[in-house]
Amino acid sequence: MRVPLDWLSEYCAPALSATELAAALALTGTEVERVEHHGVATPDGFVVGHVLEATKHPDADRLRVCVVEIGDGEPRQIVCGAPNVAAGLTVAVAQPGSVMPDGTRLKKAKLRGQESHGMILSERELAISAEHDGIMVLPGTPAPGTPLAEVIPIGTDVLVLEITPNRPDCLGIYGVAREVHAATGAPLAPEPWAEDPGSLGPLAGVEITNAAGPELNPRFTARIFGGVRVGPSPIWLKARLMAAGMRPISNVVDITNYVMLVTGQPMHAFDLDRVAGRRLNVRRARAGETVETLDGQARTLDPDIVLIEDADGPTSIAGVMGGARSEVSETTSTVLAEVATWNGPNIHETALKLALNSEAASRNAKGLAPEQTLWAQALATRMFRELTGATVSPGTLDLGGDGPAPAKIALRTARIAALLGTEVPRERAAEVLDALGFTTAATPEGLAVTVPPVRRTDVTREVDLIEEIARLAVLGDLPATLPRRSGSGALSARQRLRRRAADLLAGAGLSEVVGWSFAAPDQNARLRLADPAVTLANPMSADHSRLRTTLLGSVLDVAAHNRAQGAERIAIFEMGAVYRPERIAPRAEDVHALALLTGPVRTPTWREPAPPPADVFAAKGVAEVLLDGLGIAWELVPGQALATLHPTRSAVVQVNGHRVGFLAEVHPEVAAAWDLGPGPVAVAAINLDALALPETRQARDLTSFPSLREDLAVVLPDTVSAAELLAVIGAAAGPLLHSADVFDVYRDSARLGAGRYSVAVRLHFRASDRTLTNEEVAVKRGRIIAAVADQLEGTIRA
After folding, report:
1. Is the dihedral of CA 737, 741, 744, 747 positive or negative?
2. What average pLDDT does this structure show over 618-628?
3. Taking a C-beta distance cutoff of 8 angstroms, is the pair 351, 378 a contact?
4. Which domains does the chain have, with CATH numbers?
5. Helical packing angle, 173-184 and 426-435, nearest 10°
6. Cα-Cα end-to-end distance for the chain
7. pLDDT per residue as tens digits for the range 673-715
8. What are 27-46's pLDDT values in tens digits?
C-alpha cells in the first residue's frame, strides 16, 4: 500500500522526516518496504506563469512561440507544442535548471530556430496524471512567479507499506494516520466521515435484494446521486491518486477510488440509467455464466463466485470488479453508489480463480467491518456534492446493518506485568489503547476495553490488547539483556550431514542454486516420468500447481537459463526436498542433493583450448567427492534409475545394498526439451536422508612409510565389470592394499579373444608400521592373480 505523506499529513503530521517516520512505524509493528519519492523532488525552478502571447511558430505548424510572464522581470520566450496553449492562461512553468520527475534537468533549447527558456508543463510531465494532450491550466488566479508547490501538489514522499492480513484497519490512509498518531503522539484529525451530508431511512428509485445471504454479503448499502456532471477531477485529487498508485479517470470514478484509499472500504459507482429495470440482486453465479468486467475481459464464473445482476443479467463480480454494461460514462447523470462488505475468503478465492487481483479485491479479501460501509457513503456523499454538483436522494438503502456488538475485554494490570516482565501504569495502557481507537474505562483490576469495529477480527482476547501495549509502549524501552542459557545448541545428525554435503559440493567447484519446490503440471511429462505428483489445492499459479518429485526439473531450469545467457561451462548443485504422491513411512518427503555439469569439464586454457565435455564419468567424480567425503562406503550398479536418463550411460548408487541415488547423462530428448546440448548433460543425485554419517572415522597414516606400486593388466570376459575386478582385488590383497585404480581399458578381439577385454589397474601397497619389502608385495600379487583367475576367469596380460 502506498501512503503519500502530503495526504497523510492532512490527518496526522508528525514533525519527522520520511525516513524517521518509516523507522517509527517499523519499530511499532507496521512493515515499511521502502520510502519513495513521487513527482518533483526539488521544487526550485517550478513557478506559476501567465501566457501573454501565443503565436504560430514560423517554421513549424504544430508549435507555438509563447511569451510568458513568470514574475522576475522580463517575460520569457517558451516554445510549446500543446494545442490548447493560448494567451491569457495561467500555467505551470519549469525554468532552465529545473529537475523533472524523471530526473531530466532542463536546459535552454532552440526549437526550429526559436529559443525556448523553459517548458510549459502538462499534467503528465509533473506526474499528476497521464494526460498529455495539452498543457495544464492552473485553477484560480495565482500571481506569476508564485512557487508552483504553493499552488498545486507537485511532489511528495511515499511510504510503501506491507499491510499484514490481520490489520485491515490500516488499509486506508486514515487508518495509517491513526497508527502514526499512536506511534508518535502527533495530533489526529477528526474522522473525515464524521459528518454525513446524506440521510438514512428508505431509499426510493431502486430495488436491491440479497439472494446470496449474509454469509457471503454481510452488508449492502446504496445511495443515489442525481444531476451528476462527469468530467475531469481537480488537480489536487489527481495528484493524490497518482502518488497512491492509481490512475485518474473521471471525477466520479476518482471519488470512489479516493474514498477507498481514505477509508479502506471499496465502493462502486453504477450508471443508474443503465441498470436494467433499476433493480439489482446479489446472488451466486451459475456454472458457465459470463460477465464482461471493466477491463474488457469476459469472465466465466462458477457457483462459488458471487455476482451482482440487474434485470438483464450479470453486471459485475461482487467485491472484485464492476461490469462494463453499467459503468459510468461521460453521459452519466444519475449515479448509484454501492458500498458493501463481502465474505473475505470467498473474495480471495474468486480473485485467485479469475486471476483478477484488483485494489478492491485485495481489501475485501481481508474481511472488512460492516460499519465501514456508511463511513465510505458519508465521505463519498460530501465529495459527490462538492466535485460533481450532484444532489443526494433522501435515504440510504441498507441490507444487513452493523456487525456484532462491540466486544468488551477485561484487561488486568497484573497480567500485563506478568506477560511483559515490566510494569505498565494503567494510565499509560489506556493512553495507547485510546490512541488506537479503543474505548477504555478504569476498573479496580485495570481497564475495561471496548474493541472498535475495524479491530473486531484481530483483537479478541486480553493477550491481544497486551500485544498492542507492548509494541507501542514497552518494546522500545526494554533493556538489552542476553537470555539465560541452560545449555548449548547443537546440530542434529541430519543437519550435520546436509551441511557437510553442501561444503563438499561447493569445494568441488559447483555453485549452489535454489529452485522452486513447486512444479508445472507438464514437468514430469517433459522429464519422461510417470505423472503422479502431489497437486496443490491452492497454488500460487498454474505453473506452480504440483510438488516436485525430483530435483531434475528445477536444476535443468537453472542450467537452461544460464545457457541462454551465454554460459558454456555449467557446474551447479541443489539441495532440497522432493515429495512423493503418497506417504511412505517415516515421511512423505526427502532431502536430495543433485549436481549437474555440462559444457567443458575444465575451464579452457591456452594449453588446453578445448577440454573434453563433462560426461557420466564427471558425474561419477562428483559422487566420489560427496560420498567419500562423508565417509560412506558405496558401490555402483549398472542400470537406468529413471526414464529421464540415458539408457546406457547411467548407473545406480547403492549403500549397504539399498539404492540411494544415481549418476548418469540426461536423456538427449530431455536435454533438447530444455534447450541444452548438443553435448552431454551429466547429473549425480543422492538421497541425503537415506544416508547416515559414521559415528567415528579412523584416520590412516599416509606419509610415515613409502608405498610400493604394482601395475596389473587383466584380461576379463565382457560380462565382468571393472567394479567386480576391484572388489576381488581388494578382498585378496587384504589391509596392505592402500588403493586400486583403473587407468586403462583395451579391446582387441584378435589379440585378446572374442568377448574379452583388458583392464589395467594400478595398485599401491603400504603398511603403517614398516616399509614393505618386494617379497611381501609379491605374495599379495600372487594371491590377487589367483583370485582373479578363480573367481572371474581372468588372466594376466603379458
Report:
1. positive
2. 95
3. no
4. 2-40+156-184 (3.30.56.10), 46-153 (2.40.50.140), 207-399 (3.50.40.10), 408-474 (3.30.56.10), 493-690 (3.30.930.10), 708-796 (3.30.70.380)
5. 160
6. 82
7. 999 978 999 999 999 999 988 877 777 666 778 889 999 999 9
8. 999 999 999 999 999 999 99
